[in-house]
Specification:
Blueprint: H1 4-7, E1 9-20, E2 23-34, E3 38-42, H2 49-56, E4 64-69, E5 72-73, H3 80-86, E6 87-90, H4 102-112, H5 118-131, H6 147-159, E7 165-169, H7 177-192, E8 196-200, H8 204-210, E9 213-218, E10 221-226, H9 228-233, H10 238-247
Parallel strand pairs: 3-8, 3-9, 6-7, 7-8
Antiparallel strand pairs: 1-2, 1-4, 4-5, 9-10
The structure holds adenosine-5'-diphosphate and magnesium ion.
Length: about 250
């Protein structure tokens, strides 16, 4: 018999919609993510992938339906700080604070939000900077780093909040091929460590390797939720087939 904690979803989305004016960006989405699962969101440009991932930590509030994270209903009463402690996010363009060093980027939120001491936060940051392969860059400023290194800082910074869930929105899209390999292998490693991961990416080999489930979106709707094996060999819809034909 499975223990309840392994079957209760960490993220549960029911009939969730998001509008921009009259435009339906997310149309009544339904899915669950269980603790430790890796979800990859695929779909053409403009299909709503970023909007979906941004609703999961309420950068974009949803308009209707429900979003539950860790058993808590997420809505306008949710404390955004508590939510961001649970759900970390890594963006395509890193979003580092340019006026802060790498180390300061990493320790700011843990000190302010998690009320760690500087020493505790620094220890943690050094551990994660080591894990993402840039232990020697701690005192540099973002502008002094390559894109790949900046994205590693962004990942380390998100990990310093020790979130239950990590969201990635095309984390390798702005990187050159060599840097992509490095960042992908870091996310691979996180996946192996059991962090629940929701990732938008166009890296197909990576998706196939890490995903427990692929969510395929088009025009604000989820058209398929399947295993990568099924998705890449026999997608259920013509739109997914067309998408794959263009990608592969
Ligand atoms: P994707 O990440 O799949 O490329 P997005 O989620 O960024 O797609 O966008 C989905 C749709 O919502 C697009 O048509 C986009 O133009 C629109 N959209 C996204 N953000 C906004 C916004 N802040 N205001 C108005 N329209 C938006
Ligand atoms: Mg996007």
């Amino acid at each position: 018999m499975r223990h309840e904690s392994t079957t209760t979803p960490i993220i549960s989305v029911r009939g969730m919609s998001k509008l921009f004016g009259d435009f339906v960006a997310l149309d009544r989405l339904n899915f669950d993510v269980r603790k430790g699962e890796k979800i990859v969101i695929l779909g053409p440009s403009g299909s709503g992938k970023s909007t979906l991932i941004r609703t999961l930590n309420r950068i974009e509030p949803h308009d209707s339906g429900t979003l539950t994270i860790n058993g808590k209903l997420i809505n306008d009463k949710t404390n955004p700080i508590q939510l961001r402690c649970m759900v970390g996010m890594v963006f395509q363009n890193y979003n580092l604070f340019p006026h802060l060093s790498v180390l300061e980027n990493c320790i700011l939120a843990p000190m302010r939000v998690r009320h760690m001491t500087r020493i505790e936060a620094t220890d943690l940051a050094r551990r994660y900077l080591d894990q993402v392969g840039i232990p020697d860059q701690a005192d540099k400023y973002p502008i002094q780093l390559s894109g790949g290194q900046q994205q590693r800082v962004a990942i380390a910074r998100a990990l310093c909040m020790q979130p239950e869930v990590m969201l990635f929105d095309e984390p390798t899209a702005a990187l050159d091929p060599e840097a992509i390999v490095g960042v992908v292998s870091i996310i691979d490693e996180l996946a192996e460590q059991g962090i629940t991961t929701v990732c938008v990416t166009h890296e197909m080999a990576f998706s196939r390797r890490i995903a427990d489930h692929i969510i395929f979106m088009d025009q604000g709707k989820i058209l398929e939720i399947t295993s990568p094996g099924t998705f890449f060999t026999s997608p259920q819809t013509d739109r997914a087939q067309n998408f794959l034909n263009q990608m592969l």
